Fold:
Amino acid sequence: MTTESRKTQMKIVVVESPAKAKTINKYLGQGYRVLASFGHVRDLPSKDGSVQPENDFLMNWEVEGRGQKQIREIAEAVKNADKLILATDPDREGEAISWHIIEALKARRGLGKVPFERVAFNEITKRAVLDAINNPRTIDQELVDAYLARRALDYLVGFTLSPVLWRKLPGSRSAGRVQSVALRLICEREAEIEAFKAREYWTIEVDFTAPDGTSFTARLTHLDGKKLDKFDLPDEAAAQAAAAKVRAGAPFKVSNVERKSVKRHPFPPFTTSTLQQEASRKLGFGATHTMRIAQRLYEGVDIEGETVGIITYMRTDGVALAQDAIAASRKLIAEQYGKEFLPDAPRIYKSTAKNAQEAHEAIRPTDLFRRPDRIRRYLREDEAALYDLIWKRTVASQMESAELDQVSIDIESADRKVTLRTTGSVVKFAGFLSVYQEGRDDPVDEDDSGRRLPDLKANDNVKAGTVKPEQHFTQPPPRYSEASLIKRLEELGIGRPSTYTSILQTLEDRSYVRLEKKRLIPEDRGRIVTAFLTNFFDRYVEYGFTADLEEKLDDISGGRAQWKEVLRDFWLDFSRLHQPANDDDDGKLPSMDDAVSFLDSGIGKRSVVIDTLNEALAPHFFPPTEDGRDTRVCPACKNGQLGIKLGKTGAFIGCSNYPECRYTRPLAVANGEESEQVGPLEVGVDPKTGKNVTLRKGPYGHYVQLDEEGDEKPKRVSLPRGVTPDQITLDVALGLLSLPRVVGDHPETKKPIMAGIGRFGPYLQHDGKYKSIPKDDDVLTIGLNRAVDLLAQESKGRGRGAPVPGKPIGNHPEDNQPVTLHDGRYGPYVKWGKINATIPKGIAPESLTLDQAVGLIAERAAKSGGGRVKKATKKAAKKAEPKQELSEPAPKAVKPKVAKKAAAKTPKAAKKAAKKSAE
Structure:
């Protein structure tokens, strides 16, 4: 090798993301080239045979799509390199990505004799990266084995249960190993809420005035010398009787004053789970949004020309801090808050979460002296808010405990038959509370926190004022939010920091749950799947069983278990759940096809599934009513029983008298007002035809129908959006049945304008063109002038893909075309023609001037070599110089020639393909 060729050699570093690659490349400088793998480069194909239990769990990996491109780029770079450095994330998933890259390179013989190393760093700072580069290691095969076991388990469960699910429950989606357990949690909580019966109770509060004139409130705790339990005042009558006794008990005096000093200790630094919970409570962020922001903070932001990661790795369940971070926090606390806020010794935290990996550090700022107020101008709003949360939690975790004075005062009537109590707490020394307070779970945030009470002593007289009886009702357990579900999964030892968001996303993508007002509500499809799995595969959706599997995976990563042995034990039990092993099996593991057959046959006929689901879900779909009415009685034939039925497209509610009674409705809870709208309701009689007009509910919602005799198909029209069944009168129904109607003739074309209801809602139709009627207009009453006005409005795009108009800044000096400000997915940007230019973090979008915008656009056009920018620039240039445009050959003269040539080849290609197919 020549000296010149040696000079061109360099070290290739591979990370997951382009953003991280850009930052690390700056740190390493010349002699290094950093490439991005864009996450995993290989995966198990979504088809049978990707994992083969009968062949010692052989796993067939596949490189496809973007992975092909990235492996090709890495292989090309490695050819002229003297070392390959794998710098993926410092967790099990990151270790697996490094392993996949090496295996993919070996498969294509792209590695050769180039040595490779593995490095890992918990933060993307120059110090941490260089330190990792100088201390390489080999790929941790035990971590890889744990990844392989998890991936195989998920595949085996998903691709074995899912086919059984599809056969027994048509219309269902897939069944995942951990997702099914999370879904069970959500469904069981919903069942608790439905079964909950609210119970009424009353309390009595009294306004008092102390001798010094201070007002305060106390609550009744004892009546007639007896301590009141929560439900001892069950109704208004009992409450009013108690209130009368309180009024008659005057005068009142203080019988006891209890004072005590308590300490509140700071919370540990953030883990993935606690960060998601607090971001949800305090910032209103969803789990996915929180992790997306944290990823950006970890990978690096531009601060005064330098790209630096400002938080440590954000997928962790450890609460420990590095020694240098503890030292920095103690120094900062002493300097900024004073030595009284600094405890004598550093605080050392240990995780209470089940199966926590203590080797991982907590989430913290990479530099605690990078205060939130100082770097806010470099961050987007959400980034600044999350960084502020992380910084405060980290600093507070090393601060002195807070001290509070708690006071409880008992007040007694003259006859000692009535006792009331008031409590309050006052912060004596703020300690860590001066920086950070936990959300709703913080005991300091109770109702009495901060309530100052008068300085009272025993036997002090107090004056009673208003006596206030208050009605209350017990509340059902709350539905899970994303944050509280993650917390529960963590408590049970299910899932890991890197999997929480994907679990939630999968449940929503499969339409098993929906997120409404930040709460997870199970869809009926999800409840049916859960009922099926808990009745026929109960062991495999048990919380303890799933948590035990997680422990075994941790044992594999810790070298305490062999991954194939764990898989073998699992598969022997799982695959033969309904098929005991025979003596002649010779210990051979069944294939996945055999397992599906075993499980499917063991469940029995579909009728068994239907009976089981009806029994399990009857309380949900047919809850009892207050009047004792049987909600399972068919509203059509009046003597059939409603129940869950299974069709080709999924489950529905149908009558037991089928086919004589063909009543059906979608899966929905039949209670309250909705149950009254299930069957056909007579609205009236059409005066023109004498036929009945009825209101009905079908699979796609409510509709009105003009009943016909014999086999003639009745006319029916769906209710427009915003119209509820209780608004349907005979006039409204007849108006809907008369659609489409003629609004009038267009004044210009003299052609009729029609109004009707179509597949996508109310519309206007004129001269072959259609226009949607806005929700504020009524299809039955819209007039000619309004219709003409709507038809004259230009279309603003096609459906959901229509562009959002931007805020005008001014016109570009080059072509006088508008320059607009937009808020995009990745931040604010300015737009001119087809050129989009990102606004740097140091510039506030609301204060952006036209000159600044034009400069950003020019810089973007100069940097980009993309066709989109070239076309936009060329177009602007043509408008500025019309003579040059005329001197160039028209592009239209070239296109027909190319199209003709392509068209001429098509018949030959088709003929050749047909011949090949015939062979």
The chain has six domains: 3-139, 149-196+519-606, 200-265+403-473, 272-400, 739-793, 801-888. The longest strand covers residues 252-264.
